[in-house]
Design brief:
By secondary structure, the protein is α/β, with parallel strands linked by helices. The protein has ten helices and eight strands. The structure holds NADP nicotinamide-adenine-dinucleotide phosphate (NAP).
Length: 260
Amino acid sequence: MEFKSISFTGAGRVGSALCAELFKNGFHIDLIVSETESRGKLLAETCNSSWSDRPVFPVSTDLIIVAVPDHRLTGVLNSIKCPSHTVVAHTAGSFGLEVFPDKLKKSGVFYPLQTFSQGRPVSFKNLPVLIESSDDQIYASLKKLAESTGAEVYHSEKEHRQMLHLAAVIVCNFTNHMLTEGKKVALKSGFSYDILKPLISETISKALSVGPEKSQTGPAVRNDNNTIEKHLDLLSFSPELKRLYSEVTKSIISYYKEKG
Ligand SMILES: NC(=O)c1ccc[n+]([C@@H]2O[C@H](COP(=O)([O-])OP(=O)(O)OC[C@H]3O[C@@H](n4cnc5c(N)ncnc54)[C@H](OP(=O)(O)O)[C@@H]3O)[C@@H](O)[C@H]2O)c1
C-alpha cells in the first residue's frame, strides 16, 4: 500500500506543517477540510489543493490525516465519509486506535513529537514520529511516509505514547509558560525580554548537554531562604505567580533533598 494522494482534516498548526512538508516531498494533496474557510483555502492554495468544510473525501485519497484539537477528535472522525480503501490517521499523542468509529476500518496514529506553530517551518529531519496501527501494512506505509520526510520513526502503543505526550507538555508547554511569566517580570524590572535571552539560551543548551538534573542553580538548590523570602515579597503584585514560585521552589528543594 502506497500513499500518493493525501487529504487533511484540520488546517491548523500540525495540519499546515505536515501538509507543507509532504507537498514539498512530492505527495499530491487532494483535499483540505477545515471549519474556517479563509485558513483552509490559504493552505489549499499553497499546495495546489482544494478546500471544503464537508468531510467527504474523493476516491483518489489514499490517506486522510486528521489534525484537529483533541476535544474535537471523536466528533470529526465520526463525521468522515471516505472510500473503504482510504486510511485515516490522527496526530494526537494522548489518544490511540480506540477513538476510531467502526466504519473507519483502516486507521492509524501519526504523532510527530515536536511543537508546531503557524508560519514557522520546522525541519522533519530526525524528528521523532510515533506510529501505531493494528494493521502491519498500514503501519509500514505510515512508516515509509514519515521516513520520506527524514523523520525518525518509533513504533508506539497508546500507553507509552500518552506518557511521552505528558513529558512533552512538561518540557515544552510548561517551559514556555515559565518564559512568559519570566518575561513579564523582566518588563516589570524595567528591562526588555532580550536581556534574558543569553540566560535562556545557556539554560536549554546546558540541560541538553549535561542533563537537567546537573544543571540546576539558584536559591532553591542553594537553600538561600532569605532570597526566596525576598522573591515572595516582590511577587505581591501577582498572587498566582507567587503560588507558582512557591510550588516550584518546594519541588526543587524536595528533589535535591531526596537525591542527597
Ligand atoms: N501543535 C503541536 O505542536 C502539536 C504537536 C503534535 C501533535 N499535535 C496534535 O495535533 C492535533 C492538532 O493540533 P494543532 O495544534 O494543529 O491544533 P490547531 O492549531 O488548533 O488546529 C486545529 C485545526 O482543526 C480544525 N478543526 C476544528 N474542528 C474541526 C472540524 N470539525 N472539522 C474540520 N476541521 C476542524 C481547526 O479549524 P479552523 O482552522 O477553522 O479553526 C484548525 O484548523 C491535536 O490532536 C494535537 O494534540 C499538536
